[in-house]
Amino acid sequence: NAGVTQTPKFQVLKTGQSMTLQCAQDMNHNSMYWYRQDPGMGLRLIYYSASEGTTDKGEVPNGYNVSRLNKREFSLRLESAAPSQTSVYFCASTDRVNYGYTFGSGTRLTVV
Amino acid sequence: AQSVTQLDSHVSVSEGTPVLLRCNYSSSYSPSLFWYVQHPNKGLQLLLKYTSAATLVKGINGFEAEFKKSETSFHLTKPSAHMSDAAEYFCVVNRGKLTFGTGTRLTIIP
Distance, in angstroms, between A42 CA and closest chain B CA? Predict the structure, then answer.
């Protein structure tokens, strides 16, 4: 029962540090997504990859970069972390948007 | 552009009483709509989805939602609340990508 796997589950960074959040899915889905969740704001799309080899900005891309390494893996990188990036990050995937997304269990990131 | 508005940020009901979580959408055509649930410190789980078939959609755990085009609404209901229903619920619209409402926190009073 893998589905979408995110690592790490928790992380504390100092301002200015960099890190990469990893996401992998084993459902052979074409599309993958990164969201952030903040209290009272729902989930907001950071970046997405409609298919292997393509990436596009979402609603809140500033301060982030992504890599679609292959069909399975989609990573999110923070080059210079800021306190405003303290959030819970979710990765998701789908084969057809009309079917909904499968979500990972999230990464809780704190930037101090 | 499509968006969703969840009308209540917090709803409290007593165990065994009905649940109503309200969602309105804005769209120039019939969208695909979803409800997701997030239990504390957990990921998101799909409760149900509407994709222009039957307007009354049944989901998991006894939840259902009715798509009403005339009211641009997609409210989530359950006849009898259970303690395990305590969670945050998100109304979601398909805009090519899924766009989330701001969420409704459901509290169940014993």
Answer: 4
- A40/B102 touch (CB, cutoff 8 Å), yes or no: yes
Higher pLDDT, B30 or A29: A29
Average pLDDT, chain A: 94
Phi, psi of A99 (to 5 degrees): -90, -10
**pLDDT score recorded for residue A1:** 63
What chain B residue is nearest to A57 in terms of C-alpha separation?
B97
A64-68 vs A74-78, strand pairing mode: antiparallel
Cβ-based contacts of B44 with chain A (< 8 Å): 43, 90, 92, 103
Q: Distance (Å, rounded) from C-alpha B36 to C-alpha B101?
A: 10
Residue B94 above 90 pLDDT?
no
Residue B23 φ/ψ, nearest 5 degrees: -145, 130
